[in-house]
## 1
Amino acid sequence: MIMGYNHNLMYKGEIFHVQTEDSGEANPHFVTVLYRGGAIISSKKTSYSDILKIENLPAIIEDLMKEQHKGMMRRLKSGEFDEKISVVKAPMTSDKHAIQTPEASPDEAAFPSPGNREK
């Protein structure tokens, strides 16, 4: 199994997270996911079951993962996800520890931080 990659990117004033993980040879695929505040904006899964017998497999998988990871970051920065980003609401409020539920108003958090709890 190859170590994964994680990057936070600032785009249009918001932080996005890109994560790429390998599932290992027993489940030969890797996945790259783009998040904003915990909400998945996009994902891409790539199987490598067809190249398991290739020489130097770990190096090949690492290169493929890096390229897919960087590709997701390029796609974000190119504006490819702008329309989806405008529709998908980030579940995080300004309080980084609070998660907002769909039915909650902007001032109500499902899990308020200790400093914001009503007494």
Note: The helical segments are 57-77, 82-87.
## 2
Amino acid sequence: MNQQERKKAKESIIKSIEETQKDISNLKELTKPIPPENAIGRVSRMDAINNKSVSEAALTNAINKLTLLELALQKINHEDFGLCVRCKNEIPIQRILLMPQSNRCVHCASK
């Protein structure tokens, strides 16, 4: 990976971190407990509880993604950045820009 690609990757990682932090903030609001004193009706309450469960799963995924993005940012200047952790082949820059948290090539990620 050349310096220009590394710079693009770093910009992509930083942008993804900012977006993921915003997503986490929004999801935390959606996962707050539903107070029982809200008179929203039984069916609506069940729907709200279901939506809360979906938001909690999305929050967990976003937190995991943020962790991987921060790790990628720390490793951006290491010589093995951009190499698949499994097969050691170079990960295409397009994949890194699309999914900067990914540390595997498409072939190894699909296994």
Note: The chain has a mean pLDDT of 89.
## 3
Amino acid sequence: MLLNPKYPPAPTAPAAPVSTSTALPQHAHAPVCACQQAHPAATPGHRFAPTVGVVAGAVAAVVTVGVILTALLVAVTVAAISVAIVAVILRSLLAPPRQR
């Protein structure tokens, strides 16, 4: 209970404004120059942020699993070498004195 984080409240989207007035008729005028013509809306480009986050998470998971498996392999190797050394020492201690 000592390290209980306090999260800020989640932001909420503002409600869409409701217009009750009637729309005024619009008069069509020819543009004076080319700069006043309506331009098509720019399409948003590809967003790479979610992909980068997924790739970074996958890389972190693979590295973590690799480190854990390597540590386990080293632990098993050290244990096997220790057991082999103990077996050789016990064998020499339990052998009759003539065979030493």
Note: Helices lie at 49-94.
## 4
Amino acid sequence: MNSTAVPRGASEPFRQLRALRRARKLKQEDVARKAGISREAYLRAESGQADPRMSTFLAACEALGLEVVLAPQHLAADVNAFIASRNGGVTAASMAGQPAAPQASPAAPASGGFGSGPTSGEGHKPV
């Protein structure tokens, strides 16, 4: 396996974290330290040698400056397009070297909202 290959056992979210960490030229110990977990625990999670707890995943995401957002599957492409529109075309997946998110349908507002009604902002974190 070459140094850029992703281990077969790694889960998709940790594949993205690994690619993002490498793109930012960070070491596993840098992310682990910032996340408050051991380097060994991070290495096992990233390499697919362990099935980490959700708290480990969330801590690693926070250490890399990511916010985990849950969205209905049928809206995932729209959510990614919205994030890209607010972030200069960049999503976590694109930072990890994956293909850009599909663009929102032409019916989606270019200003970045979903739907035509007002939004309450409840539960919203700035991008």
Note: The chain has six helices and no strands.
